[in-house]
């Protein structure tokens, strides 16, 4: 399995950023697809960055 470019902590922080602004904008900024963000959101549902 391929190793992710982002750690779990970074993913959760990125998801919080996507909650504050648009998913498309965050995806472009971090060079990931919108679908990746939605997949991460499903996987990391209720986690906070400190978790």
Summarize the structure.
The chain is mainly α. The protein has three helices and no strands.
Task: Explain the overall architecture.
By secondary structure, this protein is mainly α. The chain has one domain (8-43). 61% of the residues lie in helices and 0% in strands. The chain has 3 helices and no strands. The chain has helices at 8-20, 23-30, 34-43. The radius of gyration is 10 Å and the shape is globular.
Instruction: Report the mean per-residue pLDDT as an integer.
Output: 88
Proportion of strand residues: under 5%
What oligomeric state best describes the polypeptide chains here? single chain
> What structural class do you assign from the helix and strand content?
mainly alpha
Query: What is the tally of beta strands?
Result: 0
Question: Percent range for helical residues?
Answer: 55-70%
Number of domains: 1
**Secondary-structure element order, as H and E?**
HHH
How far is it from the N-terminal to the C-terminal residue, by CA?
24 Å
Overall form: globular
Parts with pLDDT < 50 across at least 5 consecutive residues: none
Radius of gyration: 10 Å
In this structure, how is the largest beta sheet organized? none
**DSSP helical segment count:** 3
Keywords:
51 residues; Transposase_8; mainly alpha; 0% strand; Homeodomain-like_sf; 3 helices; single chain
